[in-house]
Amino acid sequence: MRQTTWILSVALIGVGVVIAQAPPDQPGRAKGAPRNPAQSPASQPRPQTATSQAYSIEQIKAGELRFSSQCGFCHGRDAAGGESGPDLTRSALVAEDIRGDKIGPVVRKGVPEKGMPGFDLSDMDMGAIVAFIHDQKTKFDALGGGRRSVDPSDLATGDAAAGRRYFNGAGGCSGCHSATGDLAGITSRYQGLKLLQRMLYPSGQPAPARPKVTLTLASGQTIVAELASEDEFSISVLDSSGARQTYEKGAVRFKIDNPMSAHFDQLGKYTDTEMHNVYAYLETLK
Amino acid sequence: MFHEKFDMKDTLLLGVGMGIALAAVAAAQSADPKNLLHPPPDSWLTYHGDYSGRRHSSLAAITPENVDKLRQIWRFQTGQTQAIKSSPILVDGVLYITAPDHLWAIDARTAKELWHYQHPANNAFHIGHRGAAVYKDTVYLTTPDCHLIALDRKKGTVKWNIVIADSSKGYWSTNAPLVVGNHVLVGVSGDFDNLPGQLKSIDAVTGETQWIFYSTPPPGVAEPKSGGATGGQMWTTGTYDPDLNLVYLGTGNPTPVLNGDARPGDNPWTCSIVALNPDTGKLVWGFQVSPHDTHDWDANEVPVLVNADFNGQPRKLVMQASRNGYFFVLDRTNGKNLLTRPFATVNWAKGIDSEGRPIPDPAKLPSRSGVLIAPNESGATNYRSPSFDPRTGLLIVNAQDGYGIYFFKPEHGAYGWAGADYGVAGRAFLRAIDYKTGRIVWNHPIGDGAGAAGVLTTQTGLTFSGDITGNVMALRTSDGATLWHAPIGRVGNGPITYELDGQQYLVVGGGSSLYAFAVPKGDPL
b or e along A56-82 (b: 16 or more beta carbons within 10 Å of the residue's beta carbon)? Predict the structure, then answer.
């Protein structure tokens, strides 16, 4: 019954992961396979806490109260992930955190591009929340498993050869992508659930290429630039210096070439079998 | 009936003074529930404005011709990090606006704070709040930790404070109660735990519980029909037909949420529209819009009540654009289905059964390797109010064409969420549905993702709502063309409108602030 406002759960899976250290070796993965910071935490074992920390029971209890009311809806009351927020017990940022030195700034600033607002908390409340998160991580580490997990082996049901045919044929993927070009070695960058999500609709970091805009100004001048943002009334592009230039839509003519449109349209075409087949094919692009 | 329609253009200072005096005299009557049957123009007495849920106003001062002259009159900042998701209540010139643990009474002409009630910090979910309710001289607030608090409307002092559910078990409340007679109907939320769905009727004066309706069996009660499901929470505000004396409510998803194996069968009355007798709490009829839901598609969207022709016959209708992507029209006297048709991208049903209910496709149940589902979890629409425009016969709804991936494996268990799902992508629209056919008459894109704004229509042919990027907008109801917009931050509630001192106000939340707009009347003093 959650009333999700943003379709950002894809991006949210890895809030802390960009600055993550590589996870330890894990079962079910080829020996010598590269370790990957961009991997979904839900598809791999928890990173180990780098520096063990002790917190008082009072602080943890206070943190539980603050966490469940402020953070729980997205991250789960137990910090093990909600629908729109990642499992913090699997977060590499949490694993690397020492007494809030990494968690604190993220909570205060928020991650607006991923839908997380900043929280204006006192040092005492922040300390309590940090204590609770570390305590939950310790508890979940001891339990093992992961009730909301999606493991890479779960996704391995497709036929790679059929996926390749679809990629090059009916799916039309090869119109924009190439196994030896942009997708070469894709499995060293994404695995498991993260790879599937990136395949279906690229988002998160690194950010997919911005759509290209061709603008014709009233003067007749034509500008080709990257799209920064757009709504019904105005369009903003990045000029050659990277600065944002905004135009009222009524004052210009414009055409947007958005490669994401093809990904969105494809979502309405895939059968589940085709989706898993293409995933299996991408898995072969070592 | 309270009246305050004198023109203050020329006697502004005097007029304000008179307004206050009149408000004091008329206060005891204006929030009487009988006024809900014919709400005065200087009021917005319940979450929907009236009992029908149409969110349609007969005020006519703002028109397609002058809507571009709307100017901001005031802004009220809640100071909260969370956006306003609640609908204000207006009575006696005072607006009541809420956020989790907070209720403010502000002057509807100036936004000056009259009083502010803050509930103690608590560890229940603070996901949002839908609004307050009023009965005579009392205003009611539900809280995240499931208290229902009755406050004196004038002073903000607590009259009584009761617990409506055990938040330590996982219940929380965001509910804007529905007042019918002396019944305050309050619902709760809670699908991270396996909890029965409950709606309580509380005596408006004494705070005593009058009855409890359970949408799924209460603890310890064997009821084979439910298939072992819990859930079906009633967290949005219902609608009411005084002639039939029936309250209509949408019920939420079953629990465990994604694990359907643990709860075989249709799981009534989850994901349903139910009709209850408000005096007894007895179910008169129920209609399941999503039998055996496994995608978190609460049917809590507003059951909109319309009296209109259907297939050439005058009917008492209830209609819902539901989170599962289907638009339903029912005969509200008996719950019989008249129309079922998708209004957004859907791929989870393999047909419609003889009773008008979508038939879940077994191939689209959450699975170990994942299935691609339309809509995604946030739904083809969500709790934000649609609006029904009687002139055009259009239900205008904040809609999304979206996709998600859904997983379930036995290791996920049978408690709470019991599975995993991830939104993939979505496109948001304001979408106009012809109630007679379900046909989409127009479709106005508002951005990527899912929209957050409710909808208001007026009899001058205007539709007010918001887009994804932070504009409040006025569209022409007949064709969806944009006539006005203002960047105020993301609109997270349903706009409301009322008339004070002969001036029509539009009041709408943008981010964590509430804004009032009006068309200035002539020259200032």
Answer: eeebbebbbbbbbbbbbbbbbbbbbbb
